[in-house]
Amino acid sequence: MSNSSIEHVYGINTVQQLIEHSASRMLKVAVSQERRDQRLLDVLDAAGCAGIAVETLDRHAFSAHLASVGIDESVNHQHVLASCRPAEQKDEAFLHALVRKSQQPVLLLLLDGVTDPHNLGACLRSANAAGAQAVVVPQDKAVGMTPVVRKVASGAAEITPLVVVKNLARCIQALQQEGVWVMGAAGEAEQTLHQLDLTAATAIVMGSEGSGLRRLTRDRCDALFAIPMAGTVESLNVSVATGVCLFEARRQRLS
To answer: What is the value of pTM for the model shown?
Structure first.
């Protein structure tokens, strides 16, 4: 298998979730001798039980291993690095099957042009915590799955599907035909988040870090809403705003 067809994943939680949910994809786990606490031992035990090869390296060898696969040593790797086969990318067919098969009203997160991997990772983590069934991103002009995304997601990327679509506006139309209500976040909207009914099948659409929702995306939404702000700041970081919106949906569904 060529190096170009191997993914490298780092971080305790991320590697542990990968072992738990995708052990068949894993080729090897490399760890540094510098760390030997219980959390790392748990990862090693899980790898052993799953029959995954484990390589223990000294500090210099581990640094060299990171460099050989193109990972900067300054990242928060937590002294563990897994090599694995790439996961099959989820597409629109997967998304529509998910919506149709769901036994409860779906909650989806659509991201319109988020380019920062830290933001995508944080959005995946919030989506998982709030019970969203999938996160959807466009194929172009947006970040996809990267080692940074996986690390920031803290294991959520191995559980909550990231669906990549060719055209977000067309995806929205197709979801609407499946009975999903599509709600777009826009700071200038008159309706607020708390006025929405998020108990039906819902897709929440968040815009990019700089310009928010694109015009075509905005026009395709069934409704636009704003997050009510009590302070002097005009907007929230997209990952923070995503958490606020998803947990409002969860609050409504629990009540």
So the answer is: 0.88
